[in-house]
Design goal:
Elements: H1 2-10, E1 14-15, E2 18-19, H2 39-42, H3 46-58, H4 68-78, E3 84-86, H5 91-98, H6 106-128, H7 139-165, H8 192-203, H9 222-235, H10 239-247, E4 273-277, H11 293-297, E5 313-315, H12 317-324, H13 335-340, E6 341-342, E7 369-370, E8 391-395, H14 396-409, H15 413-426, H16 438-454, H17 460-467, H18 470-476, H19 487-490, H20 497-502
Antiparallel strand pairs: 1-2, 3-5, 4-8, 6-7
């Protein structure tokens, strides 16, 4: 863990232009040095609570430098699935998609470090918010809610670690102090990480609000905690527990009328949004308030303001076929097909099409590109390639489909079909007949509904893992390099090599070298 601790110790919580550090053994006494903030001198007011909490939230959107948000939410979450193909360019990204990644891969190392940095930011809040003086009315309630938000964020970061790296994780429940033992932490005992995530997401629900005023949109709600806990239970095959969590959201949200409103950056934090990653597009003061999704996904020929995209990833032929068969009741391609991929259809008009021009003016016959997240409006900033729009992490449509899967699993198949049909009705595709069997409904969710509704949103890979069908599906759908996939190895990422330099006795994930 020395790499993580070193990075955290040197670049800990940046707030108001000053560095908050909790390292010990400095030649200067932090508490008397006016140029350094320590926990005892920083955490004094409501404003300080919000500054600390903002830093913890910022770890959801790691620095846009070198496209780190794209690496987390597109490369890690999508490149390994049967939905996504790639252009031969960035070797570390290619390794994940080709199932040749090893413990020295820079993407998996960066994600590991970023997640533990986020955990430390959350731990700083958890350790220090209780000590803030209650000098006015409402401070006690603010402290209680802020603690719940910090615990939610910590659980989110551990959740991402768990679904990608498994259970051989070190657990940190307090801020890094720089002590010697922190450099040599034990790996968690079996079940310890699971228990932590479950208990945190259960307990914080009572202290999180149902919603926020618009100016605070994007902060954790009790419904976001319930939805994340439900997804965690789904991954662990505990569908009865998941059903109880998803039930808390039913009727509390509403699908937006236009599917693409979830991705165009013009209808952010809408009625369908359960948890949404916030980007403002702000570049003042050296900020990176953007995600770089559009420039990486857009075609070379998606020329706007004189330059095109990087064309780093493509929808696979299998996904394109599924989407193009998602037809409305009047035989047209559905809004979710048109909103997910760019292809030769008059209704599909991405932002870079000039008036009077069409697909053939930009692309060759048969080409297909991503449309989801490839969007720009001048109100989002001066440069289209920055992508200063929000990214949905959990949508109500996802919750409805997962809830339907839970109902179907326990035999309430007719009820399950009703919830699936809510999602289908939004895009005007025919309702499923209520006569489908339990197995047919599950197969439909696996092969049609979830891919059509949620493509490129980071669900597919983890769905395949929890269904236990990764290897067969990759091969059946002719995912490039599927022959390299080893089920006992590639469902997890490796613990980074650097960690074993300080902790050689740690257990590596199966199939990977230290």
């Amino acid at each position: 863990m020395k790499n993580i601790l070193k990075n955290i110790a040197l670049t800990t919580l940046l707030v108001s232009g000053a560095t908050l550090t909790s390292c010990t053994g400095s030649f200067l006494d932090e508490d008397s040095n006016p140029n350094v903030l320590s926990p005892s001198t920083f955490w004094k007011s409501e404003a300080d609570i919000m500054k600390g909490l903002t830093a913890a939230y910022a770890a959801l959107q790691p620095s846009a430098s070198w496209a780190i948000p794209y690496e987390r939410y597109i490369v890690i979450d999508n490149y390994r699935s049967d939905e996504c193909d790639f252009r031969a360019d960035v070797s570390s990204w290619m390794a994940l998609a080709m199932y040749t990644n090893e413990s020295t891969n820079s993407v998996t190392r960066q994600e590991w470090t970023n997640l533990y940095t986020g955990i430390n930011y959350a731990n700083q809040c958890i350790d220090n918010i209780p000590n803030v003086p209650e000098t006015g009315t409402g401070v006690a309630a603010l402290k209680r809610q802020a603690l719940a938000e910090a615990r939610f964020l910590r659980a989110f970061f551990y959740y991402r670690l768990y679904i990608n790296y498994g259970e051989n994780l070190p657990i940190f429940l307090h801020q890094i102090s720089g002590s010697e033992e922190e450099f040599y932490p034990p790996q968690a005992a079996p079940g310890e990480v699971v228990s932590l995530i479950e208990s945190e997401l259960k307990e914080v629900q009572n202290d999180l609000p149902e919603s926020y005023d618009a100016e605070y949109a994007g902060r954790a709600t009790r419904y976001a905690a319930a939805a994340l806990l439900g997804k965690f239970y789904m991954f662990r095959h505990e569908l009865s527990k998941a059903e109880a969590e998803f039930a808390k959201l039913i009727g509390k949200f509403r699908l937006v009328d236009n599917y693409y409103d979830n991705f165009d950056g013009m209808h952010e934090n809408n009625s369908e949004s359960v948890l949404e990653l916030q980007f403002t597009g702000d570049m003042s003061g050296g900020q990176y308030e953007y995600n770089l999704f559009a420039i990486h996904l857009a075609s070379f020929n998606a020329v706007y303001d004189g330059y095109g995209g990087y064309e780093e990833a493509y929808p696979t032929p299998w996904l394109c076929n599924v989407l193009m068969n998602d037809l409305t009741v009047d035989g047209k391609h559905s809004d979710r097909c048109i909103g997910t991929i760019i292809f030769d259809d008059p209704a599909c008009r991405p932002f870079y099409y000039e008036e009077g021009k069409s697909f053939k003016d930009y692309h060759s016959e048969g080409e297909v590109f991503w449309h989801k997240y490839v969007h720009y409006d001048p109100s989002q900033g001066p440069w289209w390639d920055n992508s200063g729009f929000n990214v949905p992490l959990i949508r109500y449509a996802d919750v409805l489909l997962l809830y339907a899967e839970c109902l179907n699993d326990r035999g309430a198949t007719a009820d399950a079909i009703g919830y699936i049909n809510q999602v289908r009705a939004r895009v005007k595709v025919p309702a499923l007949p209520t006569t489908l069997s339990k197995q047919e409904v599950l197969k439909h969710l696996q092969d049609v509904e979830r891919p059509c509704e949620l493509a490129l949103e980071g669900s597919r890979w983890y769905d395949l893992i929890r269904w236990g069908i990764v290897e067969n599906t990759l091969k059946e759908h002719e995912k490039p390099y599927a022959s390299n996939f080893v089920n006992t190895k590639h469902t997890l990422l490796p613990i980074p090599h650097d960690e074993f330099l300080m902790n050689p006795d740690w257990v590596q994930n199966p199939g990977y070298s230290k």
